[in-house]
Amino acid sequence: MSLSRSRVLRAVLACAVLCASSAMARAAVSYPNGPIRFIVPATAGGPTDVIARVVAQHITQSWGVPVVVENRAGAGGVIGASYVISAKPDGQTVLLAPSAFGVRSALDRRLPYDPLKDLAGVGLLARSPSFLVVSPSLGVKSLADLAAYAQARPEGISYGSAGMGSTGHLHAAQFAAVYGFAGVHVPYRGTPEAVTDVMQNRVQYAFAPGPNALPLARDGRLLVLGATSAAADKFMPGVPVVNQPGMKEFDADDWFGALVPGKTPMAVRQKLSAEIARILALPDVRKRLNDLGAEPQSSTPEEFDAMLQDYVATIRQLGDQMHITLE
Description:
Layout: H1 3-30, E1 36-40, H2 47-63, E2 67-71, H3 78-85, E3 93-98, H4 99-107, E4 119-128, E5 130-134, H5 143-151, E6 157-161, H6 167-179, E7 183-187, H7 191-199, E8 205-209, H8 210-218, E9 223-227, E10 254-261, H9 266-280, H10 283-291, E11 295-296, H11 301-322
């Protein structure tokens, strides 16, 4: 290759990089271009919905554009995720997903999309320990009491969750397996519905994030027996950690994050991520989420993508060990 031709090629490549960078910069400057929609793939009143509305309110105030929260529940979050994937990749349609999205991504081999390619991370919003709750009328006061109660019933006891492949499903199934009793899964449309039936003792236990568990426990309508990590002590001092003994895999808090269509420009993802991080650092937002049993936690888009990839791999391995699949 001649020297002159090499210089021309380098100049063309440099121009292409410059043009791409300029396009990304323009996308960030013009974003947002109209109303933003937060798609929550769960029912209203659940933790994802509550966190989404807190963040949406502050974005509206700071950016001066409407941020509308839409609940598109169903099929274990697949309906909401599919809707966002089909949207224009401009950052105007955002999926606000709980960790159940990651569980479904790991265990359901028939998904109509590739969650690690068709969606791109914006960042984390919060983490929350999951709390094992029962009705006070059940008559058990501890994890050992619940295990003994269940073991004394050959037909088993029932537990509720936000659906097949939800985080609550995984936690509750693992609890039954470790303590050696038959657990009968009763799937619901969302965590609020499952928790309501626990209060009525229609199902005997459930795992629920702080925003669903703690307010009802403080009112005396639920009894918290344990939690999935030591982080729960901040919200309910002295609550036992369920991963003792023999449950190391249980040390996994629920998380909540934001994703956009996979081809959304990185500059747009970064701009939205930075704004969410700013909001999560506000004292009133931190207090609001802490009061609900959630810890605000932000991340960069790159960090969220890496976290999700690791999470899906870990849950898939755990599902294989417990013979849990959604096929």
